[in-house]
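Field notebook, page 106. I keep forgetting to write these up properly, so this time I am using the form the group agreed on. The chain and the ligand, FE2/S2 (inorganic) cluster, are recorded exactly as supplied. Prediction of the bound pose follows.
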Amino acid sequence: MTEKWIEAATSDEVPEQGTLQVQCAQNLICLYRLDGQVYATQDECSHGSASLSEGFIVEDGLIECPLHQGSFDIRTGKAVSVPCKDDIRVYPVKIQDGKVHVCIEE
Ligand code: FES
């Protein structure tokens, strides 16, 4: 496994308190912006086949799945409410020259 930084979007494309789905190599990723900071997690919910980028950011930086309303901590990927039990993957993010770069493993 090697780490690889991939340009995923321009910083402007990630809305405050919103989501953006991006494809980085084979990985479908959801970008978020919380208090100006960009975060990245896997896009697919760990409970079922739902896209977290279609979910809703609720209090304290949680993303609520649109299908069964389970939720995850965007910063850590931790599953915090039922029916979600398995954490989701988080990806390191850096902003360079107005572009969002996500670190994936290949
Ligand atoms: Fe996300 Fe069920 S698919 S909570």
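OBSERVATIONS:
- The chain has a mean pLDDT of 95.
- The pocket of FE2/S2 (inorganic) cluster is lined by residues 45, 47-48, 50, 65, 67-68, 70, 83-84 (CB under 6 Å).
FOLLOW-UP: compare against the apo run.
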